[in-house]
Amino acid sequence: MKRRGGSGKPRKRRAVGGKPRKVPTARASIADLQRQLDQRTRDRDEALEQRAATAEILSLISNSPTDTQPVFKTMLAKAVELCGASFGAMWLVDGEGCRTAAMHGDLPRAFVEQWRSGTLHLPKADIPMVRAIRSRKTVHTQDMRKERAYLQGDPLAVSSADIGGIRTLVTVPMLKGGRSSRCDRDLPQGNSALHC
């Protein structure tokens, strides 16, 4: 039977919305899923490394509650390892100055001797360590020799670049109780900075 006004041929159906939908290929979906899986695997592995490092440090703290030196050395070694850095230094605020709490990695002997534990440094406000502690934020230095502290002859900045061979630097503040300083030379007691 013929429909009214029809040619007798079946009608073509139109896609809703005008254009036909593009169906994703299985290959593209598999590749996307693989990328997601790889990223999540990397995230998990990094979290496990951090958790293991934290557990080791907490164990060390509980085993030697009065001797802080092994704790600082382990904290620094784990931070250097997690960052993939070749060396690092941990500085503690001491009054208006800073003292080395620990050093780790391949640093020249002359640099280590100059800044060994006990050497007090009275930093200028422009040094990355002071900026990190005051801002309570990580400071990334692209080239130590272009830093104002280096150009003004700050002993730590000059020694870091010229003796230590340090060019790129990441400074992470480790604040006690979240406090930061208020005035130019006043660094908060008990705070520290980690350089990698």
Question: Can you characterise this structure?
Answer:
This protein is 40% helix and 15% strand. By secondary structure, the protein is an alpha+beta fold. It has a five-stranded antiparallel sheet with strand order 2-1-5-4-3. A hairpin with a 2-residue loop joins strand 1 (87-94) and strand 2 (97-105).
Sheet with the most strands? 5 strands, antiparallel
CATH fourth-tier homologous superfamily of the largest domain? GAF domain
Which topology of the largest domain does CATH recognise?
Beta-Lactamase
Strand residue percentage = 15-25%
Number of domains: 2
| Strand adjacency order, main sheet | 2-1-5-4-3
How does the overall form come out from the CA principal axes? elongated
Low-confidence stretches: 180-192
Backbone structural class: alpha+beta
- The helix/strand order is HHEEHHEHHEE
Report the total helices.
6
Calculate the mean pLDDT score and round it.
76
CATH architecture of the largest domain, by name, is 2-Layer Sandwich
Give me the Rg, rounded: 29 Å
CATH class of the largest domain: Alpha Beta
Number of strands: 5
Helical amount: 40-55%
Give the N-terminus to C-terminus distance in angstroms.
Answer: 85 Å
